[in-house]
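Worked Example 4.2. Read the sequence first, then its structure tokens.
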Amino acid sequence: MIRTCGVILLCLSFIALQACSDPARERFEAAEKALQERKMEAALSGYRSIPKEFPQSRYAPTALLRQGELFGAYYRNYPAALEAYESLVFNYPRAAETPRAMQHKGEIHLIQFLDYAAAVEDFEGIRMRHPQFAGMDEVLLLLAKAYGGVPDPSRQLAVLSGLIEKFPESPRAAEGRWMLANVLLSQGKFQEADREFRKLYYLATDRKAIARARWGMAQALEGMGELSAAVEQYEAIRSDWDDPEYIAGKIARLKGRLRAR
């Protein structure tokens, strides 16, 4: 019995020793410390070594994510950042870090390379494979911008409507409301645009936002041929607009068109 207990204690000690001496964790923690100390080369070197030397480690996906973020945000080496993110997505498809890597990929395609089709593919991939992703409101806003560049107006409108419906309290939904109203306006859907700008007007809490909403309403009313109502909106923002002379010119031209009727 004593001998058996001794063997058990020896095994437990061995397991504890193994847990304490995790080289991947030590490497990761050293890289994190280097990053905090702004030793970027050392941090990058540490992160890059982990998936190569310890591909089965639970730290490998996070190391790849950090690697991509360093390449993208600090070094501005976007091809290298994409390579890190793609490695993470391909090799660790079920990792918690994967949807964030896909989002960063999409952001690089959208913002840095203006490759809207590739960005759409990245963001739609998150919607399809990671529907519970915590950053889905941001993904939907980015996806709407990508659809605007393709362009695919119907899908853009659908994504914006989904964003506003699913995440009504999100700051991204607030930005999405403005985008939706302006997209409708640009497509000549003046009645729908007017409705959305009026919603924004009632939600606005500062003079600048109120002026923006009134401007959109005026544009929509002008598109519908309701010139008197448009003049009324332009008059209301004359003193709050960045370019009062431009507003004055708009009012004068519309009043001229009314007199010519």
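Now turn to a second chain, presented in exactly the same format:
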Amino acid sequence: MNSTEMETRIVRYGDLQPCKTAFIDAHTPGSNQKENFTIIGGGVSESPDQHVHISIPHGFNIGAAGQPPKCRNSLHSHRTAEVFFIGSGKWRFFWGRWGNAGEVVLEKGDIFNIPTGIFRGFENIGDDYGMIMAILGGDDAGGGVIWAPQVIQDAQAHGLVLSEKGKLYDTKKGQSLPEGVRPMPLLTDEELKAFPEPTTADVIPNYIARYWDLYALADKAPAKVIGENGKLRDKPGFEVDFLTRGSAQTTPTQSPFPTVLMPVTGHWRVKWDQGQSTLAPGDTMSVPENTAYTVEPSMTGEAALYRTVATGDKAGATWRG
């Protein structure tokens, strides 16, 4: 694969195409300024307006959320992994049926492997527009989003209706549910009992890794962040490594699955047999399966990168060991 062909598998930060109507809370005050990005895979967007940059199946999805200060993403749940790392800004994550079971503040480079089956939301509490990058388990990303009942109810007051098939309709644009299609049913009180509410004492040590801790751990070899033997032990259908200058991949390596490279800091040069390319923070590169490559910083200074590779494990609930 030459450089021109490989460029089709690189999504530059400046070329990201946002969708502002991706989810049911797109018109709800407090959430109506968020932007959703689907970088690799179909994602979980409920809108036909969502642009998909790379549709090649990877065994997982890569997405992103961009939000101005004080903008929040409403409480929802997933059936497969939802992993976030902070690209920029300062973010508060909260969880539980009403969002009050626990919370944590994360900053650039921090990563959060959110347990499946809990309601979670997040908001930008910084002073500038911020970006968080997401890894979603499974090619179908778990089949879509499960919303807390109050989110669906609030959205109806602002013109958006979600069908039972997970498609959005905007009544303010004259849209309505097609004949024979019912609205998404609200979860019952009995069904809501199945959604856990873990404490911060459980979540923070088991599901969160801080950037500077990973930076220290990756001084001589890539730090295994998510995996059966990772700092965050899980088998979500993919593994996540953290690389720094001291643990850069200077010897060619390859995988039977596509490999996704996402710099957090610094510029990284990726080389393969027929070419090379340089990645900046916010860029996403998919190295094809069975393609030998090296990746190392291209200039001096702080440099860190997340690497995600599928494992062939079935995507599903958080692995308990």
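Notes for the reader: Helices lie at 3-7, 149-156, 189-192, 200-207, 211-217. Residues 270 and 295 are 4 Å apart (CA to CA).
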